[in-house]
Predict the structure.
Amino acid sequence: MDCEAKNRRLQNAAFALIIGAVLGVTLWSIHSREPIIVNLRARPIEKIIERKPADQTRAEMPKSTDAAAVKDEPSVDDKQVSKTKGKIETMIERGALSKHPAMYYKKVEK
Amino acid sequence: MTSGIVQCELCFRYCKIPPGEKGNCRVRFNLDGELKTLVYGKPCAVHIDPIEKKPMFHFLPGSRAFSIATAGCNGHCLFCQNWEISQKGPEDTDNMDLPPEAVVAEAAKNGCESIAYTYTDPSIFYEYALDTSRIAKARGLRNVLVTAGFLNEKPLRELCKDVHAANVDLKGNAEFYRKVVSGDLRQVQDYIKIAIEEGVFVELTNLIVPTMNDGEDDIKWLVGWVLGAVGPDVPLHFSRFHPMYKLANLYPTPSETMFMAAEMAEKMGIHYVYVGNLYAGKYENTRCPSCKETVITRMGYMKPDVRLREGRCPKCNTKIPGIWR
């Protein structure tokens, strides 16, 4: 067999191996429904709920070093409320939002 | 003499809303002293889904559900999978113009056997869901609610008149509802009992979130409540958490935890236990609680293989609860 044909056969074999490996991993991922790319930043959140002592059967959880992993929302100020009110009323006038009467409410007396 | 302020009576929050402002759900608006819904006929999500996706496993298996949602929600789960529409007002989402009659017409045109009120929560687009479900039922379509269960008794009983089935989230204990969901456990428990009382076929879903409601005690408590309050025949789905919204840094629920929960629920006496959001083998299938024969085989959202005969086990004739036709 000449060199060129041999090289071609080696190349084809290498391609087939790579394609086979990619296909195999993809099929395995679909079958097991495990993500291929793991979230490397994943870590447990503590202190949202005070946990009871861990069960003996559960693995030791690594401790979070961040003060809070949960984002807080900024408080809404009056300017924002008025901006939203203006936007909503304009959208109602345009028909982009509904002004259908709501059920189950009452008017608050002075 | 009124103050111009209105008090919404739809859910446990009883929001007092001054003129020009919205309730906690972001979709009920005080317009000049009258409460209006901003989202009637204005869905921001419209899809056709397999009914198993809701998840509903004992309701018209293999059928398609015409699924709608509007912006907003009266819950604020830190792990919300649909936060991009649930935690926004309709002034910030892309909405369609789709009045109730059009929803029903589109559902029928697309060969859907049911309409699912889902993704966010039908409680907050109450009037829209109510009117649509009435028209749908009159035209022979079924109605399914996919809900967190925050709705007061009176509006709930009214809505149930035209609803055939519901998947209700039972997320955790009272502390979990306060701290992680900003919700009310008692209302959800009442919702489940009232819906069943009104003849709605109910399935329950518990999303297992690592480090928060994934302990054996959490599962034991939840299953114990289900057995005591509504019995072993209400299907219970355990759903795997994936990092999302304000818990994007938390790892997905390990599969061992999911199967621990399912095995515990079965051992404690729940007849129909399922695991979702991962390949779950036998926990995707329905088995007869009497003879253990597999009566429905499922793989993901592919069309299930249903072997029931008139809603009964083909081997021992045990009635399997559900709406099969």
Summary: The longest strand of chain B covers residues 201-208.
